[in-house]
Design goal:
By secondary structure, this protein is an alpha+beta fold. The protein has a single domain, classed as Alpha-Beta Plaits. Helices cover 21% and strands 37% of the residues. Strands 2-3-1-4 form a 4-stranded antiparallel sheet, with helices on one face.
Length: 81
């Protein structure tokens, strides 16, 4: 499994609603509200990295009130307990 992080910008006032909808996605691990340019930091786990494009396009971008996403692919985890 590979961790993928997605930063999500939502329409104002819809952060919780969007986070709850993202939590329904099978690949979902956790979501955090954040400050700055984006509103949410979402952690997903995928079996194959090649599937991330379809996952983002078909399961994340279709959620209402999402304005923008920024996807970060990971390579190695350090200090995991």
């Amino acid at each position: 499994m590979r961790a993928v992080f997605v930063m999500v910008k939502t329409e104002p006032g819809h952060g919780t609603e969007v986070a709850n909808r993202i939590a329904e996605v099978e690949a979902f691990s956790e979501a955090h509200s954040i400050t700055g340019q984006y509103d949410l930091l979402v952690k997903l786990y995928v079996e194959e990295i090649d599937s991330i494009g379809r996952l983002i396009e078909q399961q994340i971008h279709t959620i209402p009130n999402i304005r923008e996403t920024y996807t970060i692919l990971t390579f190695e985890a350090f200090g995991a307990r």
